[in-house]
């Protein structure tokens, strides 16, 4: 019963997806999720899986989109999900995370190259 | 276009295809659904599978098996070194990688990739004969814990076999897909957690997967890609080599043919012990005309392998402890048939959960399903087959004090892309050297070094000012690509972090550097850094915006380091304390200099 129901729903969305990816550049997480600001965590979670089914690069519904676009859309969806669920610790415009490796190695490698 | 699913195991290989709305596992010319991963080359003839396996006693040094254990590894890896003495064929090092050498006409040296490609080519032709059309597209399964290098090597093997890899699929993900397709899933359910334990001939995978809203979402993976049935065989072989020695004072480990026959007999005994409590070993004329008769009990076998079994259970327990509400446990792979392992897993889940044994074709079935999905098969049966996989390891860059700074954390959903900004540690520094690691340890050197690359031609600037963005891209195959670019100039450097064509010159000088005494290295680093900062303060070269309080905290940090250096001189080297000090100093100075360096003047 349920399976048939889901198929019916998916079949109806093959051509025009239920939650299309926003066309304009830099959509907000809420725009990507087609949810208002008051949405609950439960809403966000279930919508995430609906978006995954529609937009995952492997999904049959996404096969008409070029691969690179599929990937960046999916990455935008996971990033938005992280933001909406508070899992993302990254702030925009944050400073450098330090410098790689160590000074002596750098000096030594430079010297050896000369 | 039809695509095949291949389960390329350590000891055997299976190929399946989605046909008439279900998966068919394709049989080989002997009617077997699994083909042994054996390649035998004698004179100018190459045979694969059963025939090759049969040839081992006659040509022990010309028949290669278990190539998967060497693929993508370095010759000096402990995993290669520890098992090579039990194999009848010869391994040697070429460019630091393990190669086998075979005495025959024509090509004599083969890499593990080349051996695997011969097997894959065989699978390709089995598929083509079965379907009657050419097949190029495949999904190949790999252990979750396969490293970047092992994944790349597997892809390369497929390429050599004339195949196009649609996906490298994790074994346990394949098992979950196949299991899900065969059972009645509740597509509207939230949170149905499945624990998959895969233990085959070569590797252990422990994966927790959520089946929710019709999507399989992998949460965490744990495992060991060198722990499986072959290790139990190794233990048994060792046990009987010793027994033979104590009975006859003769070492059969130097006799390749005897070693092989013993190995085959041990494998048979191991399988027998899954149902019987005692197994006999009978080998006539094993060595020097001596017949060898012995036996082993299940209890003895469990004792011989007890530390290996414990390692398996530790991994499982670790995943179980962090995951409550596991609804189902599924076991995949031949070695999960060992009664002791089954009993212990039931015990771990307190006998409450259903523990389901999957048939040995599950992984190939999952691969074939995924192959159908990725090649655009629109069968309604496949509509709910979507798996969200995760990065198997954390990936990052070594920063101050030897710390691993994560750019992507393990269990991040893939494909993914993440960036971090890094900067210079010296004034007017013109290039940065990045060391990319995979692994979950805090100290970079405890992880696996994937590669080293350099971004050069950074315009002169005070330390901490340049903003170098490093971007990590992980594709759906769990393969990493790294690019670095200077945000100010836009100069970019793309790097392939592993594979045979890596930056050898850089590697060599790096290796020389690492070979030097670690104590000297950390001391020189801290010395250099401290004196530079001291110079900056005394010559008043700090940016004008630096507040007096900030200058004071910088001053005190430098002073602490100077005192530490003079104290440490007397006390002798302690690498960790040097690194701690280095980290403290860098954190303090960078936080201040960054703030002022990047602020508009």
TrEMBL record, chain B:
GO molecular function, one term: ATP binding
InterPro entries xrefs: ATPase_NBD, Heat_shock_70_CS, HSP70_C_sf, HSP70_peptide-bd_sf, Hsp_70_fam
Swiss-Prot/TrEMBL keywords: ATP-binding, Nucleotide-binding
Pfam family, one: HSP70
Chain segments annotated as coiled-coil in the UniProt record: none
Top-level taxon of the source organism: Eukaryota
Family: Belongs to the heat shock protein 70 family.
Entry protein name: Heat shock protein 70
